[in-house]
Amino acid sequence: MINVAVCGANGKMGKEVCLAVENNPEMTLSAKIDLLGEDTFKTIEEAKKACNIDVLVDFTQPKSIYENAKYCLNNGIKIVIGTTGLSDEQIANLKELAEKNSTGCLIAPNFSTGAVLLMMFAQQAAKYFDNAEIIELHHNQKKDAPSGTAIKTALMMSQAKESFKEGNCAETETIQGSRGGTTYSDIQIHSVRLPGYIASQEVLFGSSGQVFKIRHDTTDRKCYMDGVLLAVKHVFEKNDFIYGLENIL
Questions:
Q1: Is the preceding omega at residue 195 within 30 degrees of 0, hence cis?
Q2: What b/e sequence results for 39-48 when a residue is b if at least 16 CB atoms lie within 10 Å of its CB, and e otherwise?
C-alpha cells in the first residue's frame, strides 16, 4: 500500500487527487495538507510528524512549490509535482537534490494523456516547419503565465531547431506584449485567461501556403487523474528524477 499525502488538498485539483487516491486499491490517503480547511495539516512538516508518507502530490502555488519540494527531497519524501511555475534553474536544482538524496521526484506540467500527446506530436512536427507559435488558454484563477505545459512544449520543440522565426520581418510592438512572450528557439507563447476555460493549448505551425494546428482542450479535471496515479506509482517504485509524464508512458 502506498501512503499518499496531498498538498493543496482543498484546491480544485487537490480535491480530485484525494478522491482518486481514496478510490485506488493500491493507495491510501495518509494526509491532507492545506492552509484552508479544518480536516487538514497546515504544513508538510506537521503531516510528516503525524503520518506515514511515501509519496506527496503537490498542487499548490508557484510561490510555495520550490520550498515544498526541497523539504520533501531533504526529508525522504518522494514527490509528484503538478504545480507549475518552477524556473529552469529551480528544476535543475531539484534534479540535483533528488539524485543526491536518492529520492524520487517527478515533475509534470500536465498529467492529461491528450496534452502529453500534443507535446509529443508538436515535437515531431517541429522537424518539418520553420515557423511556430503557441497559444495557451486557462481559467482566470491561474496565477502563472505562460503555463508549464506551454513552456515544456516549447522546450521539446526547440530540440528540432534553433529558431522558429524563419523569414519574419523586424517587428515593432505598438502595445508592449502584444506578440506574447519569447521562449526557447524564439517561440512566441500567448497566454489567455478567461472564466469558462479549464486548460487548452494550441500549437500553430506555418509555412508557405499552409498552416498546421494541434490543439487539446480539457473539459474536466478528472482527465488528469490517471496520469497522477501513474506518476505516484512510478516515484514509489523508483528513485529517479523525471521531468514530463511522456517519459513514463
A1: no
A2: ebbeebeebb
From 32, 48, 78, 142, active-site residue: 142
How deeply is 79 buried, as exposed, middle or buried, from its count of CB atoms within 10 A (0-12, 13-18, 19+)?
buried
Give 36's pLDDT tier (boundaries 50, 70, 90).
Answer: confident
pLDDT-based confidence at residue 194 (cuts at 50, 70, 90) = very high
Do residues 197 and 229 both lie within one domain?
no
Residues 198 and 226 in one domain: no
Cell of 193: 485567461
Q: Which of 81, 191, 186, 181 is nearest to 145 (CA)?
A: 191
Of the listed 32, 48, 78, 138, which one is catalytic?
Answer: 138
Q: What is the pLDDT of residue 38?
A: 80
Q: Name the residue range of residue 232's domain.
A: 2-107+221-247
For the chain, how many structural domains are there in total?
A: 2
Burial class of 206 by CB neighbour count within 10 A (0 to 12, 13 to 18, 19+): middle
Active site residue 233: no
CATH number at residue 137: 3.30.360.10
**Does the active-site annotation cover 190?**
no
Q: Is the pLDDT of residue 41 over 90?
A: yes
Count Cα atoms within 13 angstroms, Cβ side, for 19.
Answer: 11
Q: What is the CATH number of the domain that holds 90?
A: 3.40.50.720
- Please say whether the beta carbons of 227 and 107 come within 8 A: no
Strand ranges in the chain using DSSP code E only, listed in sequence order: 2-7, 27-33, 55-58, 78-81, 105-107, 131-138, 181-182, 188-193, 199-207, 210-218, 241-243
